[in-house]
């Protein structure tokens, strides 16, 4: 059975009908993916382009979380993301997410109109994040982050982390049906473990919650492709997106919206029997 539909902003996301596209807006010059922006107008222009290309959600982040990242103060991070969120909420026409694990950033971002919290620590770094989601009445993405944690088994460790996040949400009064889970591809795993994560992704469907997967341009793809740099991982990312959808991903978080939307449409037509393409076939 598909998870319960979820309202994000003014849109209702019906899980299982098709895959939704989350476009990444990095307002961080040191972003691992090489697409970091420091100019509000440029970030807003990118967001508007992503919407034209088919993005269903825009995810705005100001803190690079690449391995060994330097942590910003909440004030500095908020200064990066809030002006972009304000503009995108007014101009983009799709839900806007804030990618942060700090309550001091989440609050001003939600006051600026953000519709969704995306927390790479799944409330386990700052439990106030769950309370803020309740206060503002927004849903949240809770990710399992394996960094600095003992390893036992890929899927078991992810499940343990997600159960801890769900427990924090429950204690704060955030309904389970307002949660989206993310297994945390690339966060504390070896390349071999990341590949196993994708191979066993379907096991996480047992949570009964919508599943977000973010593999876009990650280093594991580069490792498999003989050290390909970030800007040469498009097709490798496409393979991971298609396979994630085949295993039940409901949202894919990507840097290349137009290209990965095509991947998702074809994968959905095969896996979910999505029929939105009918009546628009090209001439023979």
Features:
single chain; 284 residues; alpha/beta; TIM Barrel; 8-stranded parallel sheet; two-stranded antiparallel ribbon; 9 helices; 39% helix; globular
Question: What would you say this structure looks like, in words?
Answer:
The chain is α/β, with parallel strands linked by helices. Helices cover 39% and strands 14% of the residues. Strands 8-7-6-5-4-3-10-9 form an eight-stranded parallel sheet. Strands 1-2 form a two-stranded antiparallel sheet. Helix 4 links the parallel strand 6 (116-119) and strand 7. Helix 1 packs across helix 2 (74-91) and helix 2 packs parallel to helix 3 (103-111). The longest helix has 19 residues, at 154-172. The chain is globular, with a radius of gyration of 18 Å.
- Average pLDDT number: 94
CATH architecture: Alpha-Beta Barrel
Shape: globular
Q: Which residues form runs of ≥5 with pLDDT under 50?
A: none
Helix-strand topology string: EEEHEHEHEHEHEHEHHEH
Cα Rg: 18 Å
Structural class by SSE content: alpha/beta
Query: Roughly how much helix do the residues carry, as a percent range?
Result: 25-40%
Strand order of the largest sheet: 8-7-6-5-4-3-10-9
Q: How large is the share of residues in beta strands?
A: 5-15%
Question: Largest sheet at a glance?
Answer: 8 strands, parallel
**Any idea of the CATH class?**
Alpha Beta
- End-to-end separation in angstroms reads 38 Å
Number of helices: 9
User: In the CATH hierarchy, what is the superfamily?
Assistant: Dihydropteroate synthase-like
Tell me the number of structural domains: 1
Return the CATH topology.
TIM Barrel
List how many beta strands DSSP finds. Answer: 10
